Amino acid sequence: MRFFAALLAGWIVGSCAAMAAQLNGDEVVDIELVLAVDVSRSMTYHELEIQRRGYANALTSDEVIRALTSGPNQQIAVTYIEWAGVSLQRTVVDWTLIRDLKDARRVAETLTTELSNNLRRTSISAALDHAADLFDGNGFYGLRKVIDISGDGPNNMGRPVTAARDRAIARGIVINGLPLMTREGLGMMWHLEDLDLYYRHCVIGGPGSFVIPVNSWDEFGPAIQRKLVLELVGAEPQIRPARFRGARPDGYDCLIGEKIWDEIMGNWN
Fold this sequence. Notes:
- 42% of the residues lie in helices and 18% in strands.
- The chain is of the alpha/beta class.
- β2 and β3 form a beta hairpin.
- It is globular.
């Protein structure tokens, strides 16, 4: 009985909030989704292209379109941003309503028209803070608010990533992660063997949050598609085991990225 009472209460609160949003002129959607993609200096041009095309292909796939139209409102709002250092975030696709394949193709076309240059440093915390603020006054009311963040390394600039994570969670935002555990380009210098555990313990958060690691670039497209489907239907996946079997999981050092940066830069100096 308590379960059904809680479910009913949640439905009533959500319905009232949706009605209030409509009165304010906001478009009610099933999910407001920020796609936050790492373009820091450690990423090669090849990796940047794979990411853009991977998201474009996933958004227009039959599986994602079916998931998109399965919600009560049958529409979502999406924005795509690229990030690197503390003040380096840029919007590639501003908040856009997606209701069908035609809308998704317009977003995909923007993503694949022109690639941007990569930027310096890695500040996951600044990316999360920036992404969380994008929900304010965007003209949409989502039944769920999700930040979907991908990256190939730990935070090494700005405030601690856990502080930004906790701020977003406190605002009712869910953070999901796509750690890119590939080995290419300058990223090898800052490579963190158990980046999936770092994301799990230090980056993601909120009800049903999850991590899907990418161990090679041929996994990226399927991982993006799977992640989007799970986010759109509100399901929690079975997380694959971490590739790294170290001793850190229970007491993970969420400042490991900053320490790696200090050690390398200190040696250079």
